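Hi everyone,

Forwarding the result from last night's run.
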Amino acid sequence: MSVTGNDVSAEGVKALYEEVIEKLVAVSEVEAPQNSLPYFNPILKNEVPDGFTKNNNQKYKYVVFKAPRDMSDEEYMAMPGKGNLTQEVKASLCSLLMDENEPPVLLGHFLVCVCFTLKVFSTYGMMAKNFAMATETLNYALDNNHVVVPHSKCVGQRLRKLQDQAVRQWLEELCNAFSGDDSQRTFQGDGHMDGGGGEAVGIPSRGLTSGEEQSADEYYRYMLAELKAHKDAKTWLLTASAREQQRTNNLMLSNINSVVAGT
């Protein structure tokens, strides 16, 4: 990986975003996330800070009704951020990507992949910087794709800027709730069988392949299992030499147990 938590620049954030999206699109093309939905693209009132006076001497007016996909970057950024990072937003099944030609990528999958790429729980002395980088990348992804979240009164709202602490809490919630491991598989295959195969008799194409390529959900579970393991082991508190000593101790204990057990 070429991008690190030390490179919290516009170029660094964009590079990390593109790296993560490329990987998530690839696994989603193998098999999309289960029950995923298209990009949320409602017709909205485009609110901009200009026009008649509202509250506290702040000026607003409503202009042409537009869907987020049809807005320019300036129009989207002019929308006031009002939406909160609720549990419904965190668990959203709507695709993050506004490009209709791209397979679905979920916001939760994007968060996990960014943190997995940055190794937020496994790099000594870099946790704060890595989470700052992850937060900037998440905010860039939301703005770059004109993401709005559902709202009961105004149909959709732009999210407020995410903060480092909220992103870390979100990831820790996912890790704490995760009970599986990277060996779990939804399907045996990877969806790339040549020809018609067993489709005529009702066997999905992915069921007759080797399964070497991971689906979106499989890759998500693999990344989350790695993050959870490092979080529980508090790996970010260990230097490289301390980790090596820990490995040596574990190996010695394993050998002793084998001798005692007579294996």
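The longest helix spans residues 240-261.

Cheers,
N.
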